[in-house]
Specification:
With about 625 residues, this protein is mostly beta strands. About 0% of the residues lie in helices and about 45% in strands. The chain contains 2 helices and 46 strands. Strands 2, 4, 6, 7, 9 and 11 form a 6-stranded mixed β-sheet that branches. The longest helix has 6 residues, at about 315-320. It holds the Pfam family CHU_C. It comes from Christiangramia sabulilitoris.
Amino acid sequence: MRMIIKLMLISIFGMLAVNSSFAQGALCSDIEPFCAGDERLTFPNSNFTNSTQIRGEPGPNYGCLEEQPYPAWFFLQVEDSGNLNFRISQYENSNNTGAPLDVDFVVWGPFARGDEFCDGTSLSFEKIVDCSYLPDAIESMTIPGALANEIYVVVITNFEQIPGFISLEQVNNSGGSTDCSILDLDLGDNIAVCDESQYVIDGSTAEASKYEWFVFNENTSAYDLIPGERGPTLTVTVSGNYKLIVTDEVENKTEEDDVNVTFYQSPLVGEVSNLSVCSVEAEIVDLTEKFEELIAPNNGNSSDYEVLYYAGEDDLAEGVNIDQPFNYPFQEGAIIYAEVINRESGCKSPAEDFELSVFDFPDFELEETTIFCVDLDMNLIGSVSLGDDLGDGYFYEWKDGEVTVGTEAIISFDQLPEASEISVVISHPASGCELEFITNPVAVSRPEEVLFEVSGSDFGDGYSVLVKPEGAIGEENAAFEYRLDNGSWQADNNFRNVPPGSHTVSAREVNGCGMTTSESFFLVGYPRFFTPNADGFNDNWNLITDSNISIQNLYVFDRYGKLIVKLNPSSRGWDGTFNGSDLPADDYWFRVEFIDEKTGIYREYMSNFSLVR
């Protein structure tokens, strides 16, 4: 809507000392009228307490005013032609007392009614009529040869930038005069009507005796008179641009203004879920994460809308919105209210609320290491599956090192991973939660061979067999279990009380990576010593027979290899004599030749024992 000059009219007949206060505009677009009537015009200057316009706006040529601190904008219209002489003064107090304050001014003109003098180019150097930048509290402003109906623009500045009062009065009562009787019509700013079927435009104007309403016709690009509308108000039900012309039929003066009225439907607001964080230790939450959900029911670009957030019902009622919703302190259980606003119309939706909560992420785990079973040539045995399906709303990204290898909940590896780390990022967009889990793949194989150590004897606690798996790939990460012959598997690799006879031991990897069995071995049962002293205890030495072997020959030698005796295993055994004489205490050796009944293999076994006297 174009800027319409607003004029206040009071006839002037001379210079009087009566004070009258009124307002001033800080910008040209806020310009205020004045006229010099029967009173001295007094008003507060512009200063840091009542204005944010510290310097004159760009565009106008301010002439002699090198600086324009805290400007006040006015205009006047000439009623009677002639010279206009004014005195401008600025003091600390409204009655021209207190400290004097430096005041400066510039005047442009003449302009005609309807001129757009705030367009940035009209207030040019050529239009300057008078200007003063003197360091004085009292200035003289002159408009020579002013003609009736001309308009002049005045800016008065506060060089001191100190709060005070400006007085303006005409000092040549026999000169020209300003017009104080112009109609003051203002229909206001353009109007957005939200969720209403009609709107009443109020054009009531003092001194007006005639009203004519018009509506802009888009087809003809002209205003059409609205028949029958002759009052100060107009009820409209359709969007459009409406114009009012008012007339003072006594003074034969007219004024016009227009206003645009647009009817809008308020935006809709979406139902939103609670805003969850992933940890009770969260300090900050971004409320704007709910923006898309809140505006979802509306058509159009997201840039057409904004959302205001409120920290509770009281703030909502008072219109105090959160100024940094993207950086809001998290408090579990807090209720946030939100309104969707159409940027074009300013119309608001009803309020929607949501709660701040901590999201309960389902249980999910990857072991620190994951076993991949391979053969002794490092070929993967079978496949390995990782992961768990957490249900709807979850998304997965599996990586082998830095390479994405899957987006399903459960991933299956048919070959050994390339990298030393497998990871999965699980995200839950509705809560904004995203967690990463990592496992280290480890290749493990069965043992290449199984070794063993035999200790003990067939007497006392019997034989002990310690099993040692060797040559397994990844054996530092492997776990093995063991068995003797076809017995039960056990985690302990030491077998105790093993009876004499033919045996095998096996080792297998507990994750199913394979089993290896040893060569069979034979444990011969024999005393490790004997005491041939005729006391009835250990008086003879012989093998302990075993049904699993068929003994062919059994020989006893001294330490020098001399054959002492050839024994029958079914006899009482050797009594420690040679040719009827006792042999000395010493270590003696034996050799047994036998056939393993399990395998049918001929074997020999040699060892030693002690004769103790």
